[in-house]
Amino acid sequence: MVRKAIIPAAGYGTRNLPITKAIPKEMLPLGLKPAIHYIVEEAVQSGIEQVLIVTSKSKSSILDYFDHSMELEALLRSKNKEYMLKHLELPKIRVFFIRQPYAKGLGDAILLGKEFVGNEPFGVLLPDDFVISNQAPALKQLMDVFKETNRDVIGLKQVKQDQLKNYGVIKGSNKANHIEIENIVEKPKNDPPSNLAVIGRYIFTPEIFKCLEDVEEGVDGEIQLTDAIKGLLGTQSIYGKIISGDRYDIGILEEYVELMNIMSKK
Ligand code: UTP
């Protein structure tokens, strides 16, 4: 059973500058709630019991958001505005935090969750990737494959040819209800191995931590998750699942605006 999940939220959010100088990308509003609220809710709706949010020095607003606000609650009560207390409700789940000293890459952020995870399978949700689906939440779709196979599962999405250079792209073969991953290429400049890109939902077994520890810094000094996945591929099967639903990357302004419109109506 997958009970725990890591949400890496310590990146600099450079694509969203200048707002991210002062507001973390994960705290950008979607309606009147910040993006990360919905990501934690997705974890809850997928059956996760504990999440670890990886933050950084300049992102205390994420901790503040998931804290209880006794003062506001008291104020609303004293003004007979109890009906507004529902706006202070948080997703019902235990939330833990750890700080990444500096943004050394997604792989490094996930490695910080090693002690939190212990010896269990776990989920990873990237808080800038959203999937709006009328079926099960994105993470749950992967958990269903994990339940059947007991193997690591990576979320995939078909992406237009000219966009593949921005993603990890897999080579794989079709199985009954999933794809067996044979190779994964990070941001292929030419000849992408397929049109299936990795999107920000994963189920890993704790073996990934050993691979993350073995990964060396890439050209940009970052510890890449893709390199650890490649390492894992050498020792065990990894599956991919094409996630059903519409995907939005809030690091892309047009997609953020579109998502904002959708969520404001909810
Ligand atoms: P991204 O690369 O999409 O986010 O990482 P970023 O680096 O913040 O944004 P850009 O590319 O500069 O615009 C995916 C997720 O991983 C987290 C980010 O916060 C984001 O939610 N991340 C990334 C970390 O937690 N630590 C890192 O070192 C890198």
What does this protein look like?
This protein is of the alpha/beta class. It has a single domain, classed as Alpha-Beta Complex (Spore Coat Polysaccharide Biosynthesis Protein SpsA, Chain A), CATH 3.90.550. It is built from nine helices and 13 strands. It has helices spanning 35-45, 60-65, 70-78, 106-111, 114-117, 138-149, 207-214, 225-233, 253-264, and strands at 4-8, 29-30, 33-34, 50-55, 94-99, 122-125, 129-132, 152-158, 168-174, 179-186, 196-204, 238-242, 246-249. Strands 5-4-1-6-11-8-12-10-9 form a nine-stranded mixed β-sheet. Strands 2-3 form a two-stranded antiparallel sheet. It has a two-stranded antiparallel ribbon with strand order 7-13. A hairpin with a 4-residue loop joins strand 9 and strand 10. The longest helix is centred in the middle third of the chain and has 12 residues, at 138-149. It is globular. The model has no long low-confidence stretch (mean pLDDT 95). The structure holds uridine 5'-triphosphate (UTP).
Examine the secondary-structure arrangement and name the CATH architecture.
Alpha-Beta Complex
Order of helices and strands: EEEHEHHEHHEEHEEEEHHEEH
What structural category arises from helix and sheet content?
alpha/beta
Helix proportion of residues, in percent? 25-40%
Superfamily (CATH H level) name: Spore Coat Polysaccharide Biosynthesis Protein SpsA, Chain A
Secondary structure tally, helices: 9
Predict the CATH topology.
Spore Coat Polysaccharide Biosynthesis Protein SpsA, Chain A
- Low-confidence spans: none
Shape: globular
Largest sheet, strands/sense/barrel: 9 strands, mixed
How large, in whole angstroms, is the Cα Rg? Answer: 19 Å
Note the beta-strand portion.
Answer: 25-35%
Mean pLDDT across the residues is 95
Instruction: List how many beta strands DSSP finds.
Output: 13
- Structural domain count: 1
Instruction: Assign the CATH class.
Output: Alpha Beta
The N- to C-terminal Cα distance equals 31 Å
Bound chemical compounds: uridine 5'-triphosphate
